[in-house]
Amino acid sequence: MHARTRIAFGRPLAEARAFADALYHVLATSLLLAEGQRLRDGRDDFHKLLVGAYYARRWLAATAPGMPAFGVGELDALPALAQWAPIPREALTRLGGLP
Fold first, then answer.
1. Count of domains in the chain?
2. Residue 57, class by beta-carbon neighbours within 10 Å (0-12 exposed, 13-18 middle, 19+ buried)?
3. For the whole model, what pTM was predicted?
4. Residues 54, 78: Cα–Cα separation, whole Å
């Protein structure tokens, strides 16, 4: 076995992959939230901000093992998102996205 193969299947690659995954989720969240702020300011549209808040909560927030990322009340806005119905500002407040 080559030295490079041993390194590729060892810890350094696993740590690099975990870091790359985290960096990807930070970038995706920042893009969603930036576009969401632009749409909120321009059209009073909270869809993308809510999606960004859901994404951040799912991929960036620490949760205890075996615990869901969201409570039942925090998912009330999903049908409105799917149907592209108006999203009230309160949907973000319940999720912790806006004061």
1. 1
2. middle
3. 0.76
4. 10
